[in-house]
Amino acid sequence: MAPHTPAKSLPLKVPGGQLTKASPSDVRRMNRSLIFNLLFPSDARSRAELSRITGLSRVAVSDVVNGMIDEGLIRENGHETNANGKGKRATLLTVDPMRLHVIGIDLSQDHLIEGAVTDLKGTPQNHMEIALEPDARLETDAIIQLVDQLRADVDDDSIIGIGIAAPGVVSGGVVRESTALGWRDVDLASIVESRFTVPVTVVNDTVGSMYTERFFGEAGPNLMFVKVDQGIAAATLIDDVPALGEHDAGGEIGHISLDPDQGPQCPCGKRGCMETLIGAHALRARMAGTDADGRTAILNDAGTYFASAIAMSMGLLDIGDVCVYGPADIINSTFLDAAQNRLDAMTASTFHQRTRVRRCQRGAGIALRGAAIAVVLHHLESA
């Protein structure tokens, strides 16, 4: 695994995009987020090291650290190794995964709502599911029911928030458009918050999955994460800041048409959309009844299409890491090799470092864990 690079604090957004003078509470919040990010998820650092890295005085670091220890975000955990064996060894600080909890909910799976009580690292402590009938529409009452069941086994005072990963365009807690759920302008955060007394963070499921890959996978601070599941969606990380777009719809690439003239008809009304060409359902339908050579040819074409679709983005953003999450029968070596070969052919130059296309290794639960991480990030920014 590549060494973890600590995430940067997200920039402070202000109305109208104008810069304003930071208040003392803003400064304290940013310092708190900065220090936590230097420890999350598994780094151990002393107060002196945090002072050197951040440029904050030791007094300022100690003030913030002491408050975070009292809150349950971090803990003292062992001592530095002193190479010469002389002098007092510094106390190390790490994230405290045990005292505070998050409730994570994943709405991205077919006919299933998955939930868990997690620790601050998104590790599930208690897991539950609600299975839906094949033709049933997901209602928010089912989400509230699942949260209620999960809360029964944990102290309410330890829960810092509820995180929900939902497919589609998510903006400010509202699911603006989700074809998979059949929702439009559903204010999910407000609906759930009206029932419970903790903040609710709603995140696009692909963005949430990207958080999991960033903190617990192989990714660094620059990444394009692509999810091939019910549909196709992407999330982009640039210098550890998610690129969500002007209307929070960045990454909704499933209905970009790659072959608008002769491609398959899409339910959206266009032809040749990515989902109809390389979506998991479309590829499985195409491969049904074919022999091994036929399946290989279909996946080879799919990987080639995929690389052609993202090549322009690689040139624009200069990202060296493309992580693809999807079922093993689709996102396999045939698909990835074809994508790598086409991307190399389209982007190779003396000034562009080779972009690697790889399969995500995180497995099941990736969106749920990302929803929990989103809660932790929001908690740091808003407290």
TrEMBL record:
Gene3D superfamilies: 3.30.420.40, Winged helix-like DNA-binding domain superfamily/Winged helix DNA-binding domain
EC numbers on record: 2.7.1.2
MF annotations from Gene Ontology: glucokinase activity
Stretches the record annotates as Disordered: 1-25
Top class in the EC scheme: transferase
Coiled-coil zones: none
Pfam families for the chain: ROK
The organism's place on the tree of life at top rank: Bacteria
Alphabetical list of InterPro entries matching this protein: ATPase_NBD (IPR043129), ROK (IPR000600), WH-like_DNA-bd_sf (IPR036388), WH_DNA-bd_sf (IPR036390)
Keywords assigned: Kinase, Transferase
Similarity comment text for this entry: Belongs to the ROK (NagC/XylR) family.
UniProt-recorded name of the protein: Sugar kinase
